[in-house]
What we know:
The structure is a single chain. By secondary structure, the protein is of the alpha+beta class. It has two domains: 45-79 and 282-455, paralog of FGE (formylglycine-generating enzyme); 84-231, no CATH class. The protein is built from eleven helices and twelve strands. It has helices at residues 2-18, 83-108, 133-142, 171-179, 208-213, 238-241, 249-254, 271-291, 305-313, 386-389, 451-455; strands at residues 41-44, 47-51, 67-71, 74-77, 200-206, 225-231, 300-301, 375-381, 404-408, 425-428, 436-437, 441-443. The longest helix has 26 residues, at 83-108. It starts with a helix and ends with a helix. The model is unreliable at 4-16 (pLDDT under 50). GO terms for molecular function: formylglycine-generating oxidase activity.
Amino acid sequence: MKKFFVLIAVAVFxxxxxxxxxxxxxxxxxxxxxPEKPYGMTLIPGGAFIMGKSDxxxxxxxxxPAKTVTVPSFYMDETEITNAEYRQFTNxxxxxxxxxxxxxxxxxxxxxxxxxxxxxxxxxxxxxxELTPWEQYLQDNYVGLGPTGYEGRKLNRxxxxxxxxxxxxxxxxxxxxxNFLIPYEEAYNGERTIDTDKLQFMYTEYDVEAVARNxxxxxxxxxxxxxxxxxxxxxxxxxxxxxxxxxxxPMHNDYYYHEAYSNYPVVGVxxxxxxxxxxxxTLYHNGYRKQRNLxxxxxxxxxxxxxWEYAARGGLEGATYPWxxxxxxxxxxxxxxxxxxxxxxxxxxQAVYTVEADAYEPNDYNLYxxxxxxxxxxxxxxxxxxxxxxxxxxxxxxxxxxxxxxxxGGSWKDVSYFLQVGTRDYEYQDSARSFIGFRTVQTxxxxxxxxxxxxx
Length: 456
């Protein structure tokens, strides 16, 4: 009788655990995944190339000797991040913080939905307001306010925010709105604008490399996670500070704000702000996919120096510029990029400052303005001897103690030497400039795509 029960138990075990696999190892199935090219990006097929100076080192910098390196496939923005794209980030931060302040004010005054006032913006409580783990993560870490005591309570994002002072519903809303603006004594021409210093994004970093190399068993994962509030608004004063005895007030006043410049590259953004944008873009994209039960995407990030140079060359081996070279003009005498030609004739290339992010012809990877327009931050520290010791496979040198970060490609205010794809330059990570922007990349997921496979 006991043997009979044992046989039944074994049979039930096999039937319940097999689930139709007939006892075979068939692999655990995850969420459906279909490789999707992110909007505005192009796929750069991985491959090997000769990184470094193609011509003589006329500047005698000795910081870019020729070296063969290999990079995996990745997506890259076809253009530099534009003012309009960056405004989507700053508007999201602005709205999130403002909604949180409204909800706190409603909670403190006992206001609830249905009062046609600030109660309409109250936290969503009860079953309707229960946060998913993802929403909890997003709310607690990325609003930018730091600890408020209201973590874990869901914001009501279904109600439109009111920015027109003529439509403010009650005094509580007016108080929150007033605290969000610059003081009266700082207003210019009677116009009080949003206090941009209040717009901060809580940037979180997990140092995977430090974890992998850690041998101290007393440390846990939390010891390698850091959080830092990062002001997100571009520094528009760069248009004044970068130039002495020069009238650039119109650019200071309008370049980031005015719709006329929406398709121009964002500037006045330092290295940390560029990285914060990348993290927000990842969270924003994955938040959408999470709602639809789709597999997450890899993070958006700044390119390494190797990725940037590989993409800038557009598959041309030994080229001086993204279009080949060795000249910055085509056969009709037209300049091929936005830079400082002819010893300071800025307008000779049909632009005085920056141009639209998709101006001029793209390279063979369909990337615009890899040379000129604005220099671009990369996710690498500037170390003059880096090429001598960095890996030949997906190389990157990023020392946290080194505050000098790489910028590549040259800009509208640079001479043609800095437009060369092999030229290296740097700026300090906390510095914002009127001639430095950025573009993002995303590691390609799925089947390997290489340049060799693409050409066979």
